[in-house]
């Protein structure tokens, strides 16, 4: 168990979260000073704070509370598990500064990632092939710069974002909409295991045993936005959870980025709407870096790269526009490998993509 959280404190926090909503709970905490003291407040104070139905529910401990306390007490004693309360000194300050910070954060993995510079990457659960590739490539490039990639472990863009960070040897946080004793969707169980094995972090505001409830997934989007310095939307329909995350990020004063796409693709319309509303249009990871550069500079992780291969390709390009076919002839690389290398260099700001499928090396400095 956390050394800062006694058994009685744990019981009080769990009862509080199970008895009233987060807004009412924060008002009670402000009046009482601690979760334990909340349940010692005089009846008059409770009557002023809670509506009658909520007041009645608050006066009776939930039937499942004893089981929840026992399960939570056993869970937090396991290696890599932790439970942060709203009053914990380690509670992420950037999340605390949002309009609706969760009362409890259930954590599994590297909790120190909560103190690192982070970028949310979100998007469609059914992206185009290009959208999934972009999510993975942007995530990989920015994770190599030292940004922790935050997403929601959903299918599609979320999964690609987590994978890109892990591929780069970087850090990633998955904010989920269930209890941490289960993984949803089940198809991402392998990704969740890889994330934890790779030094990532799983996070939820929901207690153990919380099943899959669709209403919980839009709610967890405020945590994704609140943990991050910025939010990048890769692909999204006009009506989507990703736009909710972007709106919450903007309301919290965070940067919002969007990747443009085809005017004929439904998955691009949400990004285009965000750009019309003031989101920053990005075409490369360098665009994101430039906007976040005034904030705390992250420490880049040590990752296995092949800089000599990048230098060889840049040397082969020269500084004049060149076609993919010409580069294939110069380098002798197969088209898929060459295209992947060019996209990575483009995302890192070393190469520009021109009209007519031409590429040009950017002059540095």
Automatic annotation (TrEMBL):
Transmembrane segments: none annotated. It comes from Pelomonas dachongensis. Belongs to the DprA/Smf family. Residues 298-357 form the DprA winged helix domain. Residues 83-292 form the Smf/DprA SLOG domain. It holds the Pfam family DNA_processg_A. It comes from the Bacteria. Gene3D superfamilies: 3.40.50.450, Winged helix-like DNA-binding domain superfamily/Winged helix DNA-binding domain. This is DNA-processing protein DprA. Coiled coil: none annotated.
